[in-house]
Amino acid sequence: HVVDLELPYDYALTVTMYKAALKYNVNYVLTGHNVATEGTYLPKSWRHNKMDILNIKDIHRQHGQRKMETFPHYSFLRQKFFLDRKLKYVNLLNFLGYKKDEVKQFIQKEMGWRDYGGKHYENVFTRFYQGYILNEKFHIDKRQFHLSVLVQSGQLTRENALVEYKRSAYEEKQMQTDLDFVIKKFNFSEASFAEYIQATARSHYEYDSIDKYWNLYFKLIKKGKALLFWK
After folding, report:
1. Residue 6 to residue 48: CA distance in whole angstroms
2. N or C: which end of the chain has fewer CB within 10 A?
3. Contact predicate 36/93, CB 8 Å
4. What SS3 class is residue 178?
């Protein structure tokens, strides 16, 4: 019932990447993130710390039915090691004057790419999560953020953004197909899924969280620096 249902996937993907970087002595990560079309950070109430393994474990401890034997994870100290190691992220598109519509037209023409409708809608679960679950259970429409970023970067007018926002976020037939898929994949019944959607949402901070250790760490660092330069 917490908002960031993609937390386990995003965490596992990042840790697996870190392990590969360590194994092959890689110091740089090339990403497709860009400020022009994706902005910086989503509102805090829409997401959670993607590296919060304690949150994942505590939610699983209270509600999980299977053991997390093969789930990739790192401890707090191990995460700190990667920060100290300074694994650097390079957002290439920030250096290219990235124009979303121009790029879409280019890859459609040169590579046969097909537009899948919405941001991250190439993934069935992400499409259903963003297009249905966030809207119905948490009353969050990520298009508010995505369209606002395009307006800020001058790639979309406010008027056109409002027109786009008024359109349905999810084509009805596609939504029903995805709903059937998700219900089957996660062993829901139609009744139990409806109950899940209607149930009260819970905060990630009702469970254990690595954030408290990071907060303590930064407080100690701040005090240490104050003592170091105190005269």
Report:
1. 10
2. C
3. yes
4. helix
With contact defined as beta carbons under 8 Å apart, do 1 and 199 qualify? yes
Q: Note the pLDDT tens digit of each residue in 81-100.
A: 766 666 888 999 999 888 99
Q: Is 46:198 a contact under the CB 8 Å cutoff?
A: no
Amino acid identity of 80?
K
Residue 197, pLDDT > 70, answer yes
Tell me which residue of 56, 27, 9 sits closest to 211, measured CA to CA: 56
Q: Where are the alpha helices (DSSP H) in the chain?
A: 7-23, 35-38, 53-63, 76-85, 100-111, 124-128, 134-138, 143-152, 158-166, 172-185, 190-198, 211-228
Measure the CA–CA gap between 123 and 11, rounded to whole angstroms: 17
Measured distance CA(5)–CA(127) in Å, rounded: 12
pTM: 0.86
Query: How far is it, in rounded angstroms, from Cα 207 to Cα 86?
Result: 30
Number of Cβ within 10 Å of residue 48's Cβ equals 23
Q: Which residues, listed in sequence order, are joined to residue 91 by a DSSP beta bridge?
A: 31
pLDDT of residue 83: 64
* Nearest of 193, 137, 150, 143 to residue 168 by alpha carbon: 143
The encoded tokens of residue 220 equal: 């100690």
C-alpha distances out from residue 173 to 88, 124, 177, Å:
42, 14, 6
- 87's CB contacts (< 8 A; 6+ apart) are 18, 21, 26, 27, 28, 29
